[in-house]
Design brief:
CATH class of one domain in chain A: Mainly Alpha
Number of strands of chain A: 12
CATH superfamily of one domain in chain A: Acyl-CoA dehydrogenase/oxidase, N-terminal domain
Oligomer: homodimer
Largest interface: A-B, 112 and 112 residues
CATH architecture of one domain in chain A: Orthogonal Bundle
Structural class of chain A: alpha+beta
Distance between the termini of chain A: 43 Å
CATH topology of one domain in chain A: Butyryl-Coa Dehydrogenase, subunit A, domain 1
Number of helices of chain A: 19
Low-confidence stretches of chain A: none
Chain lengths: 599, 599
Amino acid sequence: MTGYTAPLADMRFVLDEIVGLDELARLPGLESASSDTVTAVLAEAAKFAGQVLAPLNRVGDRQRSVLAGDGVKTPDGFKDAYRQFVDGGWNGIMCDPAYGGQGLPWAVALAVLEMWESANLAFSLCPVLTQAAIEALTQIGTPEQRRLYLHKLVTGEWTGTMNLTEPQAGSDVGALKARAVKAGDHYRITGTKIFITYGEHDYTDNIIHLVLARTPGAPPGTKGISLFIVPKFLVNADGSLGARNDLRAVSLEHKLGIHASPTAVMSYGDKDGAIGYLVGAEGEGMRAMFLMMNNARLTVGLEGLGIAERAYQQALAYAKERRQGRAIGASGADSSPIVLHPDVRRMLMTMKATNEAMRALAYTVAAALDRAKRERDAPARAAAQAFVDLMIPVLKGWCTDMGVEMTSLGVQIHGGMGYIEETGAAQHFRDARIAPIYEGTNGIQALDLVMRKLPRDDGAAVKKEIAAMRALDRELGAVNDPAFAAIRGPLGQATQALGAATEWMLAHLAADPKAAAAGASAYLRLFGTAYGGYMMAKSALKARARQAHNGSDAAFAAAKIATARFYAEQILAPAPGLLAPITAGAEALFAIDPELMSA
Amino acid sequence: MTGYTAPLADMRFVLDEIVGLDELARLPGLESASSDTVTAVLAEAAKFAGQVLAPLNRVGDRQRSVLAGDGVKTPDGFKDAYRQFVDGGWNGIMCDPAYGGQGLPWAVALAVLEMWESANLAFSLCPVLTQAAIEALTQIGTPEQRRLYLHKLVTGEWTGTMNLTEPQAGSDVGALKARAVKAGDHYRITGTKIFITYGEHDYTDNIIHLVLARTPGAPPGTKGISLFIVPKFLVNADGSLGARNDLRAVSLEHKLGIHASPTAVMSYGDKDGAIGYLVGAEGEGMRAMFLMMNNARLTVGLEGLGIAERAYQQALAYAKERRQGRAIGASGADSSPIVLHPDVRRMLMTMKATNEAMRALAYTVAAALDRAKRERDAPARAAAQAFVDLMIPVLKGWCTDMGVEMTSLGVQIHGGMGYIEETGAAQHFRDARIAPIYEGTNGIQALDLVMRKLPRDDGAAVKKEIAAMRALDRELGAVNDPAFAAIRGPLGQATQALGAATEWMLAHLAADPKAAAAGASAYLRLFGTAYGGYMMAKSALKARARQAHNGSDAAFAAAKIATARFYAEQILAPAPGLLAPITAGAEALFAIDPELMSA
């Protein structure tokens, strides 16, 4: 198994050239993100990821978290790593300094988070869930709730969880049955929640569960749902821990991957009902959930990149070392490293190019999240928010699908060794498979994109992006270089296809929602692939400008241009073919009665 | 976890309408394959697969085969199932009756084998390997070798293995180092072989290892390799078992999937050298290997279908039962089974359509294998063999890639439950991942297709298939039905693209082999997808003819036409987009020095 080295050069390139870090750092509240600070933060994070988290990844996969008595035993080394994580101040790097955070932009935080996800995906899930709880409490918690819980969640002294799912209520959150009955200043919570990531663990003294439940007499469906703080240990007014609350993990799931992350079945209120505190107003639970979800979907989307980057590093190292056969045109009698064989190189370049496209996309969305909060004028904030809303499902759906596909290539590059667990490539493939499922399946993301995000303002947010892609086409056309011509052609065609698909969707959404839904997943894939191509083309132009001005990183710039060209030729060029399934309608889908679908 | 019900209706449809079973059964030696016999065989096999093998699939995954002392303990129930398998006469159904086989056509045998692979992939690998040994001994064994070994391999009383790989010799078979030194009428074999499927087990009294090794003074590379019979127990002239040979399994691999199948590291000749008997002549090992491999590649390709069919049945059952949300246009307040949601239906139909295309392709290739052996005149045999040679890499590469993609959809349809091992969907996903790797990685298949099979007779075999696809276009055009128009358009474009890609390959193969190799995998994928579309279009036409003549299976015929239409609109239509990566050349692939490929 190979270690992990953070791809600092590309991370920094994306932050500087695509995100515009210097401009971002001029926004109110983000002044601490100076170039020097960011350099230091990324370097330290790279060290922690490579030296502390990465070596535990395989340990966690083999040992798994296990339920022992009333608690969970995490794998050897994880608890200590978490302590170091908290001591290093990593948990709250994008959080409000008023609560102990470092106030760094989300764009920078995402680069750091990418490192945790690459190094040890199962470990990284704990802070990701805590962050979701922080987001909800920051935005709709009472001052007293913020005082009691936020500081310790931000530092990571306590962790947070998100309790939505019940056996009968998965994608259909409105079907949940957990009950919350008012009892003075609090509520009594009863019910069973499943798939609760880090629902129980041994990292910290307390766990703050955020639980969706239904109050008596509340309307059915999503309108009757409220959000509650349900701490594992009750918290006294002075912040000290009080009595154990009436909740427990009753079992842990045996999962395909992310074995070190304890996925718990949580039982609330077996005795008198767990004590819970309302967050926001009764019936506002879904709004609160979306507050938690939006950022969680951003970070889950990033998981696709994180795990694919790890798989790439491992496959590249293997391909440079492993020798089989003689490469075409190789001289001498010796066998060649397989990185020199065209099909192996194609797989590696596919991974590299896809990862870099995902990185540019993810950090760009994160920067828009910063802008949506920090821009000085309201229209700029609104525009940034519209972009975030549009792109979150694309990021989540496309990047997590790519995570599975790229880790599969990682296995393939290893040949037979890839199928052997000790090699480690298979773990990435298993770990990656969860990301298209949780935080809203990718099917749900596609519907969110097409049914909710796309039609807002008659598609204004999409059309703005398509216009930007067209504008870039003109820039590409102005460059006299065959590599840029090779990029421009496929990008133009993909933009054209995305425009046509968007028009079709806007025209059919209301009149034939089944047809729109039938094409939604292919639309999301076209969107992600085309936008990834746009990001890579932009990167190539920036790299060219760097080449012209500065000779020091000429090799990086040349590699970026070649990678963008590869992306255009191999990944982007076939994408317009998706226009046909997007616009095919639902007739063939529903032509066969489900009872006759067996052969 | 769901059981397995053999898709007898579709299997029979493919055999009757696509393969032409009645015509096949008129060939010399295949007369036993009467319609009634085939019906009885398929029905019995379906029973055995569903009742005996399928229930063991999960047991095998959990218990795994383990090395215990000198032997391997297979999971509970497997040894008994194997005994029933042998007693039922299943092992040799496509083998020569002279050796105890049933002499059924490969086309029929493949339907049966598909059932084993669906029901219990790990179990099915043992007879698949035995079959490869049978093939080699039948074709190049001496009469005495055939007398001693073949009958017991055909009945399954003994099993066979294929020993090619060594740590330094995977795809590069020519790099193997195992040694064979002549000692009178036999050889002494020494060396280590890895990834030996069923290299050791407790099913039978003896195991016949076929081992590639190098004789002293033999030329380097593949020309110096010979094939040897190396039995676990030596066989006396009267067929009784003699001394234990000097070979043993030293460890079993911990694999991502197919846990019940023991994958052994075999050590030969730790003491005095294992006794081995030359098969064919010295230096003919590679030819022998290809004899074993060609059929093994056919059956491994079929594994993609087998596992995808199992995953489909499980996902369909779940989607009909699981209720979440209300489907578009559903009346009432109840939640709908998720099979009614467009994106879930799209995934299910993708599985169904892909599986049916794979089935038609696989049985067609198997029937050509029959014709290549049995046709009365030599040109007909040669034509069938040319088709087999061309299609084997397509079948192996495309179907095994589809196996991974379809089992991944199977996981996705289950949502969070898909990630939980107890559900069983994840096992199919793990099991499927081996098939693109072994018996020649799919990269090797693509090179075999483009570099060896395609250029034979200047592409005559491919051009013949493209001409057949064009001829079908005219048939489709003659049908006055919008479903057939929807099939015709994408098939025409895919045929066009396949023709253009083929011309490009033929033009570039010699002059720019790197460029051809760079596009080989995309070419194979286009080939498989387009040919699958051709198979489905043919099926739709046959179904329509059935509808006209016979009302009894009208629902099946209507479903087949709808499935073919879905395939055309959703799977086939985007395929011509692959023409761009196929013809992009190798420049962007090799633009970056491997040492600079890290980011």
